[in-house]
Amino acid sequence: MKTIGIITNSDKDINFEFTKLVAGKIIELGGRVLMPHASASKLEFNVEALDETEIYSKAEGVLCLGGDGTYLKVARNAYTANVPILGINLGTLGFLTEIEKSDIDAALESILNDRYTIEERMMLETVIYSKSEVIAKDIALNDVVISRGELSRILHVKTYINNVFAESYPGDGIIVSSPTGSTAYSLSAGGPIVEPDLDIIIVTPICPHILYSRPFITAAERLVKVVVDENYQHSAMVTIDGQNGYEVKGGYSIEVKKAPCSVKMIKVANKNFFKILRSKFYMRGETFKDEI
What we know:
With 292 residues, this protein is of the alpha+beta class. The protein contains seven helices and 17 strands. It has a six-stranded antiparallel beta sheet.
């Protein structure tokens, strides 16, 4: 891989300190750097400045510098161009952006010398309906969240699997997530941890006002439908990957299923999922020794 795009969250990389380091290292290793015009102008050396949409179509791979939010934003653009991505963590937790600052040089050497693998992650296709009218369509890598609006009112939703009634949840809402999203909002709401290369869909209620409520898992081939109770008099929100939001009302339905597309992730190290989990969550980034 020689032609590499760089997308930077300027709020995370003050003065583009790490962007300069990454771009300079790629050029040093004989690579070609593509960057958006605004970011390219911050560098003291020349890189190819393009519109951001052009970067995804012309790059062999894209590096994003920031946190997991930055990664999700880039992923939602990269999948349409079928270009693989790698995240460099400039945030706090950085579960998706798994390359730490100290590992940048080694990661870039692996990429430029074609010592990497590509891992595909399933995405979720979402369609929002008002009766039979399509209100919106979107794609998520992590999750689709149906939640109450600004007023602190219990939101009543009904869930269906392949149009068969599954359960009704009164509470703050519901999360429909992919395996990749199992370690995001779903985890905070009490959902299960799932290995990211599986093909399943996770449904997790948010603060359910009911004693026996539990998250559940269904096959990726199923259609998950969430219906906002018709008697709900207030607006609710559908949030896709924390990036896009859509207002919904009583009677609206949200259909979620496995998308026909996927996100391609660049892997430069054979890191075990559970080792990453211990480091990122249980020990919050602290070093630890593997147990035998």
